[in-house]
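Dear colleague,

Thank you for sharing your sequence with our group. We've completed the structure prediction you requested, and as agreed, I am returning the results in plain text so they can be pasted directly into your records. Please verify that the sequence below matches your submission; if there's any discrepancy, let me know and we will rerun it promptly.
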Amino acid sequence: MRNPTRHRPGTRPQTMRASSRPQGAEWRALLWLARHPLFVLVPAALVWAMTACGPAAVALAAGSLALGLLVWSRVHPATFDRLAAPTLRAQRRRWTAYAGRRWAATLADCDLVRENRRTGRAAVPRVLRVRSASPSIDTLYVRMVRGQDLRTWTERADALAEALIAHRVAITRIRPAVLAIVVERELPFDHVIPAPEIPSDPADVDLGALDVGDNEHGQPFTIRVRGTHGLVAGASGAGKSSLIWSPLRAMGPLIRDRLVRASMIDLKGGAETQRGARLFSRYATTAAEALRLLAEVRDEMKRRQDHMREHGLRTLDVCAESPLELVQIDEMAMLTAYGDRADVREALRLLAEILTQGRACGISVWGYVQEPSKDVVDVRELFPTRICLGVTAASHVDMVLGDGARERGALADEIPGDPRHAGIGFVIDTGSRLPVRFRAAYVDDREIDELVERCAIHPPPAQVLPLHPERDADEGAA
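Please find the predicted structure tokens below.
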């Protein structure tokens, strides 16, 4: 039997071309309603309610609901802002800013709409979901049209921010053909974040999530010190001291009960940290002291490794016998780049040994630098947790947070360097890989003194009474 699909030699096969006619408007409307069922269900429910109960009852119920929300927002704003406001705000912004002709016109102005060359219709990227966790931040989940990729959008991020009248737009890919777009409509931090409270009970301290400030979504900004090492980069005056003292306040009871053994290396002669010296089990202000401190921590790590090997343990729990060893290094560049050549080599060797082997042993190293380049911090890649405060160069952002972080919206180099913006910075969210802005809490001298008074492990130095020559002379004559 002859195959009808075969063609005769010398002839071109017949191909079916796609129709240039667009989809019917009624079919597009049905698809749109299938994606947005509430546009049918809500009016249908209102019609049914008015039929069953009467218009007056429906109006009374709607008014009572609106009044209840208003009263809730005034009486207990904390729970309202946490439970109801994000949903209400997201729905309002979804249908006023990110839908319909307004959204299509915005994308068209930014060259983010593609035209179907057969039908001539404009293909507009569709908003799948809107989240609005805080008044200043919207997160859009957008399905790209065919032919677009992440670079298409990141190259137009600045134009999109201007079109949306936003301060910043950050874009990342979360799954094939779907982007997460963070729209910062207004600056989120217009006030200083107060210092974290010192917990009264050690059981209230979570070393995996120490509350040290707020993020741009209005949620606590937490850092983890157990099982990780951290690198904090920021120019002079950017607020690095906030990320030294805030974690110490948040874990204060554990320091007092010797479940955390805090050590400090301050190569500025102790100018920044002398006020809290009584908190530290080890304290170094010179390069020689710093090398001895690191050697002691390395030796403790070896002792713990022997114990773990003997008892078949993979990790150590924090307890009196094996407290968390927290080593903070202020101005780490003086130890890793700018000091004596022999001291720098020895410091890098000790740090590399501790950073590669210490996490499972309950040892955590936190370094604070102004310039995060590899020439200054050769062991930069050994810090799993990285925080970028205000920096002076755009290249520093990617050095700290990873390639493409600034392109995705971590504009740490644009944070003003004045005291009003100290403590503001960026981290990378581990789930979405999006940059998240935060502000660390400000800890003043009085709050450092409070921490020392409540949680110090060393007694205050003996006070020498002042001499009174005239009184001493009178007592001698008597």
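Summary note from our side: The longest strand covers residues 126-134.

Kind regards,
the structure core
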